[in-house]
Structure formats: structure tokens, C-alpha cells
Amino acid sequence: MAPRPLGPLVLALGGAAAVLGSVLFIFWKAYFGRDREQRWDPSEAWWGAEPVRLPEWDTWGLPEDEEEEEPALEELEQREVLVLGLDGSGKSTFLRVLSGKPPLDGHFPTWGFNSVRLPTRNFQVDLLEIGGSQNLRFYWKEFVNEVDVLVFVVDSADRLRLQRARQELHKLLDKDPDLPVVVVANKQDLSEAMSVMELQRELGLQAINSQREVFLLAASIAPAGPGFNDPGTVHIWRLLLQLLS
Ligand SMILES: Nc1nc2c(ncn2[C@@H]2O[C@H](COP(=O)(O)OP(=O)(O)OP(=O)(O)O)[C@@H](O)[C@H]2O)c(=O)[nH]1
Ligand SMILES: [Mg+2]
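^ thats the input. predicted complex w/ guanosine-5'-triphosphate below
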């Protein structure tokens, strides 16, 4: 049978996707580009950037007796962290918890970007989530070469989609062979969660080039039940600070 020509709807959708990709990319370059001269203005933070200096997390990376005067925000250099992972893995929750906000009750998919800006002693950290739904994964690769670290969040209890997560992760690894990667094995609080050893094997992390910095951290960013005084977010944050320093 001869191939059918693309229908107008398919062409329109393709065009819309291309436009969306370009807009996202231009926005990223304009907003987080390394060479930009314009400083961030909190009044323009319409997409959810966090202008506030938060009390808890910016001391997590510091020994307690090293209290120094903090530099002004506008003097700080910037670092960019891209937060990716399949839909529902816990990316938005991670950003919320880092911002000192409580996790939301239920899954509210990110239909585009989500970001927070966290000032630390020596630099500001921009964390950018791109939603993990299938149509948004296409754009992930456009951003990996623009950032300092990739955080890839995995739902440890989602056995059905683990191979999909593996494929998406390795596509990103192939795109930038030098980018440090922190894989977060989230939802360890769930009884069906895979262990870190199992995830390391199933995600193909052992086979990765030893030159690359790859870390696999267990976490329960928003544990469903009590008994998790140390859900792991602090460890992830400390590791990020080390990698970004
Ligand atoms: N049990 C458990 N649930 C969690 C944990 N972390 C996040 N969740 C839940 O997982 C669901 C999805 O979390 P989100 O942070 O919205 O997921 P996401 O990765 O941002 O998803 P998309 O925006 O669709 O790509 C929410 O109901 C969270 O409360 C965890 O450590 N344990
Ligand atoms: Mg999200």
C-alpha cells in the first residue's frame, strides 16, 4: 500500500510542537543564558521562580560554625541544574521541598517548565524542571548541553516504566558525555520500591564510562507515611552543592 500523505491535523500538530520547542528554547536561552547581561527581576517571575531567600536549605551545605556575612544576591554567580524524569517521578515535589513548601497532595503534571532559584553562599542555583509527559520528553535533549548538572528522578516503585526511564536517561547521557548526573531513586518509602542495587543494574548505570560523574541516591522526597525523618533531599542538595562548587 502506498504511504498516505500526512493529514492537515498531523501537520498542524507537528508545526505546533516545533513552535513550542523553539519558544521553550528561546526562553531558556534568554532567561538562563550564561552570557546574558540582564539580571533577574522578581517582578518578572511569572513562571514560578522563587525570589525568596529561604531559611532551611541554604545552611544544609555548610558546617555549623562557618557563619559568614552573606554576599548580595546580585553579586552571586549562577549555576544551572536540569531536573528531568518520567511524569510522576517526583520532580516538582523535589523543587517544592527545596523551596520550603509542603508537597502537594496528588500528582499535578507540569505542562512545560517549572523552576526555582535558590541562593547559596557562593552562587545562585537555578533548578529547572521540564515536565515528564511523553510529548515534553522530546524537548529534554535541547537543554542538557546548557546546564551544569542533570538530576534524573526515577520512581523506584514504577517497575512497568523502568525500561522507559532507562532509555530516556541514556539518550540524555549520550547527548552530553561530560555532564555530571545525579540519579534520584525516589519513593523508597513505598513497599514495592526497587532497591538501589537493583536500580543501578536495571538502569544500566554500571556500564557507564568511568570518566563521567554519575551518582545514584536513594530518596523519599515526599514519603507517604510517617517514619522518614531523613527523606534524602538534604543529601541530594549537598551533593549538588559539591558538584556545582
Ligand atoms: N510515596 C511517595 N510519593 C511521592 C514521593 N515523591 C513524590 N511523590 C508523589 O508523586 C506524585 C507525582 O509527583 P510530582 O512531583 O508531581 O511528579 P513530576 O515528576 O513533577 O511529574 P510531571 O510534572 O508530570 O513530569 C505526587 O503525588 C507526589 O506527592 C515520595 O518520595 N514517596
Ligand atoms: Mg512536575
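Confidence is low (pLDDT under 50) at residues 1-14, 33-56.
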